[in-house]
């Protein structure tokens, strides 16, 4: 099954989509400030909605195969999900502003599917609004790709649950002298902040190289499980830390009496 599509937000509410691309009607209702008598169930009970569903079953269902147009998920993070076109109809019934906002997002996502470079453009613009320099943005993109590869390698080599945090901290400690929590304190960041979002270009590039070497090392020695993979992450980070230290020491100004 494909990964769930990236969510978006309106009025501070995250509008989720499930693995099949259906949109959370529950989240749309909350984003419209939970209007009375406009819950998903009430929209679905309308005669006009039933007529719309009948047409959709003939026009849309063949494209979706065995997937349901409307689906419900139980639990704390559940809700009612609807195929994209139906979700747009529900958003229009809820609020004109919400309808236009959701419609715009869907058009943008469709354009990004045709031209993936637009995804990078949107991410770059978001980083720039947050004050990232051009160098930080380039390093962040490079690091995200490497991090994705490492996470995939860790999963294939039996890392589970807290093992990912163990491997991350095993990488951070040789490079920056502490775990993620220590870095947050040192940089005066909120408790849940991602340290990678607040690293310099040099820190990001160093982290990229360490994680690249770790992924290669884990596969080369066939490390298995949380601790063995964390050990490989630590070893890779130590190598990069030594390289950085050696470079910094070699770049120190020479005294006037030093040999040329």
From TrEMBL:
Highest rank taxon of the organism: Bacteria
SUPFAM superfamilies: DNA-binding domain of Mlu1-box binding protein MBP1 (SSF54616)
Domain KilA-N: 2-109
Keywords on record: Plasmid
Single GO MF descriptor: DNA binding
Region (Disordered): 240-260
InterPro entries (alphabetical): HTH_APSES_sf, KilA/APSES_HTH, KilA_N
Stated name of the protein: KilA-N domain-containing protein
């Amino acid at each position: 099954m494909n990964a769930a599509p990236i969510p978006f937000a309106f009025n501070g509410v995250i509008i989720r989509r499930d693995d099949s691309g259906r949109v959370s009607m529950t989240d749309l209702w909350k984003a419209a400030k939970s209007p009375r008598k406009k819950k998903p169930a009430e929209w679905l009970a309308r005669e006009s909605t039933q007529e719309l569903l009948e047409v959709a079953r003939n026009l849309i269902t063949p494209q979706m195969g065995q997937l349901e147009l409307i689906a419900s998920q139980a639990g704390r993070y559940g809700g009612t999900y609807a195929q994209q076109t139906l979700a747009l109809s529900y958003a229009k019934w809820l609020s004109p502003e919400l309808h236009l906002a959701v419609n715009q997002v869907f058009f943008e996502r469709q354009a990004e599917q045709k031209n993936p470079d637009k995804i990078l453009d949107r991410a770059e613009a978001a980083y720039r609004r947050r004050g990232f320099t051009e160098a930080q943005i380039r390093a962040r993109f490079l690091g995200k790709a490497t991090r994705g590869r490492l996470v995939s390698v860790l999963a294939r080599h039996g890392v589970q649950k807290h093992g990912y945090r163990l491997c991350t901290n095993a990488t951070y400690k040789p490079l920056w002298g502490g775990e993620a929590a220590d870095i947050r304190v040192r940089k005066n960041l909120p408790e849940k902040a991602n340290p990678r979002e607040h690293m310099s270009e040099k820190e990001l590039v160093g982290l990229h190289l360490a994680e690249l070497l770790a992924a290669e090392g884990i596969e080369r020695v066939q490390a298995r499980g949380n601790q063995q993979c964390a050990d490989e992450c630590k070893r890779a980070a130590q190598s990069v830390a030594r390289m950085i230290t050696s470079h910094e020491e070699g770049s120190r100004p020479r005294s006037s009496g030093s040999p040329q």
